[in-house]
Amino acid sequence: MPDHRDRGLNGRNHQSRDFWILPHLPCQPRELLIWTRMSLLVMRSAISELMSSLAELMRSVAELMRSVVSELMSSLAELMRSVAELMRSLAELMRSIVFELMRSLAELMRSLAELMRSLAELMRSIISELMRSLTGGGRPRGQLTCWDVPVSLRPQTSLARPKSSSAQI
Predict the structure, then answer these.
(1) What is the mean pLDDT of each run of 10 residues along the chain (169 residues)?
(2) Range of the domain at 95
């Protein structure tokens, strides 16, 4: 008679005991009862082993998740510290740049004000000299200029023809 044992479930259970699955298929009611009880015991043992393996797997997954979350939180905290340091450095750099820019702008404004004062002084000097030369205040008394020459002293030139030449024609 052929051996009807379930080869897939033969082996060792979670307590390392040897056990054989059903020795043969039942033919009598008493054998059917024994076969049913043995089947239930085998299924209970298999379910128990599966549940034990599943619990172990869940513990491993939970430990792995805790480890991953812990590592992620550590990395996130380090990243946040780095970002905060970067922001502090950036703020300090901006403060330094703005301070230097304002100092340079103030220096430029002082130089521009000095230039405007010098230009105003130069303009006053030029206008004063021009006014003095126009009013005659710039030459010693008694010295004549081209504007002061009397009309009678100017050389007489006539645009008309000389009288002697018209008589000859």
Answers:
(1) 46 45 59 80 92 96 97 97 97 97 97 96 92 72 61 58 56
(2) 11-137
